[in-house]
């Protein structure tokens, strides 16, 4: 079959360790399923600041653009936290999203059986929770004009939040498509009782809904959604929302599953192009010690196979392998009840490879 | 002693019922403690739209302005939800906050012993949770310029978020004062890695912190805060944040206590002036049936005594009376385990009055 090009960005902290395990999985998938991949590594985030003087070097962007998909580990760390804006890993993150046109961020929040107890929610409340947050990723207050000015009450800072019909429509359409393939329920989250952008959002979502008569749509105000996620998490199927609200709600949703360290995410653009990364961060405190859990990154690769390449067989095989290894009781230290029996990052990777 | 003037706004839904019980408590406080109150009722919200054609009539504003404090029941309901903006209860709410200069919204989130089990969080996680969210209430994206314009990608909506130094400083100072009188811990929540307003916010908070060396300050990103509230709610003491983030986080915090129906809130301006209201809404579905729980409104009155009038004795007496009635097992239907034994709104009010 055709050779697929994957840009691999290891990044900072535990990024290189978890990405290395995902690459082992990539290799075994080639052997088992006959797919062909070509990987190219690129610098991004803190390490790119150190080595190239910018979080998002041109070369990295070129590598990503010429690839079919991007696999990202994690970026950031205290070392760069006090840098000026242009020299911060987050700036690279926002830059790459915009430059690659990744307007949609999917964060499935599911409960792993072996991690049920890690949640702070009661098991009976968590039961059956399986939702996905579809977050708009290249618009809103993240990318609007920002500036300072003098006011009569001292210096003033301004952020601008803007959304146009096209931006809302494409993310709404994608969320409806996803909901139609799942349990057919979509919650559109806004603050239409206060914000003009939210009123536009709601108008467009209602218009798009006409094309999806089988998807049940509800509008939820963002403050109410923050509450309902706590009260009835299992009643949500797909949640679609704008950039800033999505940042907050997707983290809340991920945390309540108790499985945050194992969750995968996808950032998609037009067509099948996508960037895939674990939901967890770069965890600089445990970097380089073989303590990191590579499962979220490996599952992000599975998501890439499913969403970008349409390799459902390989995606399913990876997910099954992960489940099998967990069922057999293997745990990295972050999810181990008995830390003394915890296995290392590469041992976990090897077990998953063997199971595939 | 001096006569204190209280503007009473019953509002919509269950508003009139719960406010009536708080007024009974007001009367008995006069008798027991010798304080003198003068109340004046005013129309606001949905009922004001129906009777006066505007959610916030001039007359109501005058009554509030000439009073020392405002007691508010609840506003809003489906009847007005599809009205144009100027004819919606929320517009009145935003208008009254701005007109009265209520720049600070305090929402204490505490766990009532009798409601511990109502939370979806595990009891051991909830244990000891007692926090207060200090939300900036008259600035940010709520009050910035809003408009529509044509763009190349269709109609575009814009909201503007602005904060100046004075606005941030006064709310920060108040939050530090509150933290200093509590457990001495302040979490300032922002999105300084993305927003210019958040960077200004953080700069000012750091500057104000110099005046409060005994308060331990941490900066928490809003997405992380949404997670940490779930993971370690009891570790928070005071949380201070801007308007939009405060809307979301205060609702999340209230919901995780399981006691949302019993929580009081205060909106304060310069000096001792304040507006006090329950955190819960107007609950139109149960309005007029004597089913509403008046405790949150009665506790809002206690907060008024403490924060606006400095009547700590009366505030403490009301809180003790509420605790005593609950300890004795009395419940309105919203908090009753055995609904058949539930008492009515006015029975609950009478019991609290008797206990004072
Ligand atoms: C690091 C930060 C800029 C980023 C965001 O806010 O989008 C992160 O929180 C995320 O959710 O990916
Ligand atoms: C009704 C709405 C405008 C209001 C707000 O967003 O401030 C409400 O949610 C609140 O928190 O008091």
Automatic annotation (TrEMBL), chains A, B:
Enzyme class name: oxidoreductase
InterPro entries, per the entry: IsoCit/isopropylmalate_DH_CS, IsoPropMal-DH-like_dom, Isopropylmalate_DH
Pfam families attached to this UniProt entry: Iso_dh
PROSITE patterns: IDH_IMDH
Cell location: Cytoplasm
Positions with a binding annotation for substrate: 97, 107, 135, 223
Binding sites annotated in the UniProt record for Mg(2+): 223, 247, 251
Residues covered by the Isopropylmalate dehydrogenase-like domain: 5-352
GO molecular function, one term: 3-isopropylmalate dehydrogenase activity
Site (Important for catalysis): 142, 191
Keyword Secreted attached: no
Cofactor: Mn(2+); Mg(2+)
Keyword NAD attributed: yes
EC number: 1.1.1.85
Co-factor remark: Binds 1 Mg(2+) or Mn(2+) ion per subunit.
Gene3D superfamilies recorded: Isopropylmalate Dehydrogenase
TM stretches of this protein: none
Metabolic or biological pathway: Amino-acid biosynthesis; L-leucine biosynthesis; L-leucine from 3-methyl-2-oxobutanoate: step 3/4
Catalytic activity: (2R,3S)-3-isopropylmalate + NAD(+) = 4-methyl-2-oxopentanoate + CO2 + NADH
NCBIfam families given in the database record: leuB
Its biological purpose: Catalyzes the oxidation of 3-carboxy-2-hydroxy-4-methylpentanoate (3-isopropylmalate) to 3-carboxy-4-methyl-2-oxopentanoate. The product decarboxylates to 4-methyl-2 oxopentanoate.
Similarity comment: Belongs to the isocitrate and isopropylmalate dehydrogenases family. LeuB type 1 subfamily.
Oligomeric form and interacting partners: Homodimer.
The protein's name in its UniProt record: 3-isopropylmalate dehydrogenase
Protein's organism: Paenibacillus forsythiae
Record gene name: leuB
């Amino acid at each position: 079959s055709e050779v697929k090009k994957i840009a691999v960005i290891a990044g900072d902290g535990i990024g290189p360790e978890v990405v290395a395990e995902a690459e082992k999985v990539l290799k075994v998938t080639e052997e088992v399923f006959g797919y062909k991949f070509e990987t190219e590594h690129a610098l991004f985030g803190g390490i790119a600041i150190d080595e190239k003087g910018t979080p998002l070097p041109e070369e990295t962007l070129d590598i990503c653009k010429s690839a079919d998909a991007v696999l990202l580990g994690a970026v950031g760390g205290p070392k760069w936290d006090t840098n000026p804006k242009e020299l911060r890993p987050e700036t690279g993150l926002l830059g790459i999203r915009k430059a690659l046109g990744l307007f949609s961020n999917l964060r499935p929040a599911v409960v792993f059986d072996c991690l049920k107890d890690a949640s702070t929610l009661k098991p009976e409340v968590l039961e059956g929770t399986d939702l996905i947050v579809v977050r708009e990723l290249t618009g809103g207050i993240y990318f609007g004009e920002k500036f300072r000015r003098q006011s009569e009450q001292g210096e003033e800072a301004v952020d601008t939040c803007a959304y146009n019909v096209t931006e809302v429509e494409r993310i709404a359409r994608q969320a409806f498509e996803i909901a139609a393939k799942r349990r057919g329920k979509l919650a559109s989250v806004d603050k239409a009782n206060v914000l003009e952008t939210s009123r536009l959002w709601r108008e467009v979502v209602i218009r798009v809904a006409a094309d999806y008569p089988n998807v049940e749509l509800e509008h939820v105000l963002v403050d109410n959604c923050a509450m309902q996620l706590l009260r009835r998490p299992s009643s949500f199927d797909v949640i679609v929302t704008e950039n800033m609200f999505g940042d907050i709600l997707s983290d809340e949703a991920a945390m309540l599953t108790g499985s945050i360290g194992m969750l995968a995410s996808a950032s998609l653009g037009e067509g099948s192009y996508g960037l895939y990364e674990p939901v967890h961060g770069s965890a600089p405190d445990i970097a380089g010690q073989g303590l990191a859990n590579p499962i979220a990154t490996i599952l992000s690769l599975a998501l890439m196979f499913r969403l970008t390449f349409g390799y459902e067989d390989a995606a399913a095989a990876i997910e099954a392998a992960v489940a099998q290894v967990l069922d057999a009781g293997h745990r990295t230290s972050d999810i181990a009840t008995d830390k003394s029996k915890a296995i290392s990052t590469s041992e976990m990777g090897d077990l998953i490879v063997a199971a595939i």
